[in-house]
Each structure stands twice: as C-alpha cells, then as structure tokens.
Amino acid sequence: MNRLAAAGARTLGIALLTTVLVHPATATAASDTKTSSIPVDPATSIQMQVSANCDAAQARCFFTTTASMLTREGPTGFPGDTWARQTVTLRSSSKDVWQQAWYSAPSGNPRELKGANHENVLSKMYRALDDVELSITYFGGGPITRFTADGDSVPIQWRTGLPATDADFIACSQIQVVYGGVNLTTPSACAQTRFG
After folding, report:
1. How far, in Å, CA of 120 to CA of 84, rounded?
2. What residue range is the signal peptide (predicted)?
C-alpha cells in the first residue's frame, strides 16, 4: 500500500513539474523604484523617488517621480515659502533610441508634449537625439501630490522607427528645494527597467 501511495505521489509530482515547464508564467511588465535623499537636519531630509515600468503589450514605458520631506512622522509636503526646480531625464541604454514622451506635472493634469503652467507649477520638455528632459519649477509649497509628476514614453529605434523593446528604459530625477534658509539639491535617483 505504501509503495502504491509513493508511486502516485511521484506521478503527481512529475505531472506538476511538466505543467510548470510547459506553461511558464509570463510577465508583461517590469518595474523598478529608486530613492535618493539629502539631510536638512538630523530629523528631516528631502527625498526624491523615481519609479519606472515598461508594458510590452503597449510597447510603452511609464514613470512617476515624487519629491517629499521625510520627517520622524513620515513623508510630508513642503512649506508654503518653497521654491523648487526638478529635472527629469528619460533615456534608453541604447544611443540608437529616442523617446516619444508625454507627461503631467503635477500628476493628474492633462498630458503635455511641450510645456504648461498648472497650479503654479511651470514645466517644459526638452528633446534631444537620445533623451528627453523635463524641467519642472514649483512656486509655493503644498502636499506631496503637488510634487508628483508622471508620464509615459515609447522608446523608438532610429533605424526602423519601431518601438525599441530590447533596450533598457531609464528615468532619473533630482530636485533643488529652497525654503526658509534651506537651499539643497538631492542626488539623482534613477530607475532602470526593460520590457518583460
């Protein structure tokens, strides 16, 4: 009886292994998140977080950047007298790829191709042969949502004009924040991913 149970368990194990090998799990998106910060004082720092993910089904990559003050109570927005300038750079690991990008600053506003002024947040997009740079200037403080930008990009191969799904997508950001005697710039945070 024990031999029959052992043989049945072995057969079930082989069947499960065959199912896993024949039908592997498929991933359609890959993502990465990176954070950088600079101390203001022993209890507070300014933080920049960048997330990026690529969706193979859409042949499109997405990014989100969030700036905040990190205190002992957790992340919070910036004081009312804040002036800040953020730079976001989107590029590929290949110099033969350019980015067809759109963005919202602050997040939730209509997507932009060139520049805009939403809620006293001025933004401008600069295109180069192999990257895109966003310049976002904040006049006044507010909650973290005001200091969040997002967007998407289709990496395109120069040679073929087709989506470049075989190269990494890289989103980097840093922010200079000025308020009440503080004038600091975070190190650049870079999220790097590729199509799954």
Report:
1. 12
2. 1-29
